[in-house]
Amino acid sequence: MNILQGTGRLALSFILYLGQLGTLAGEVFVSLTRGQKRFRQMWEQVAEIGARSQVVVGVTGAFTGAVLAAQTLFQFKLFGLETGAGGLVAVAMLRELGPSITALMLAGRVGSAMAAEIGTMKVTEQIDALRSMAVHPIDYLVTPRFLAMLISVPLLIAESAAFGMLASWVVGVGVFDVESAYWLENMRKYLDLSDPTIALTKGLFFGVLIVIISCDQGLKASNGAVGVGQGTTRAMVYSSLAILIVNFFLTLVMQMIFPAAFVPA
Hints:
Layout: H1 2-34, H2 39-49, H3 54-76, H4 85-123, H5 126-132, H6 137-175, H7 180-190, H8 194-219, H9 224-257
């Protein structure tokens, strides 16, 4: 009975949490359609989320592509298939690794910062001060971050995938002596417009998950610095788990929408 009760409480808590996220997402939608537009705050967040994440995303994408190319070539070399590694790395970076790795890095860097900043404002009653000045907290704090994520995350994913493919080419051609023409030809052969479409679509979903989960944790912060720290940790963990879970289902949906993208050309 204790196991059943614990499982039931966990399920109810999860459903309640999904409801809270849905409520916040609904408030953001209302803010987008009826609320005051704060473009200055939005562009400040674009700079914070996008411009200041480029180094982290570029390094992450480059070394992910490099190690994937090395591991692939170690195995393909046994069968004389080295030239095919370029196509495999390009497909993997665009469809899976680029979106997921970039989103996980942003969940750690950007999501935790959002939760910490909004949580600090919550426990120091700055959010109550905004309400007293007739400034809606969702309009001022959440919606600009939401729009900034929609702009920044797809671009960062494209950058990550590009650096990953470039680094894989350097490893394949420079370290394993694969002919550059064959490497690039296999990249061209196995890629089409559906691949960047899949990457950018996943980026939009992941960006929404990060900003909604992180802002929700910040808005619920309590108990001073301890509560802010706990909310920051939960924002990063919950966002990362949501990205990994949603990525699986998005992959299944994308396979149904772009079936030809998942079979060799």
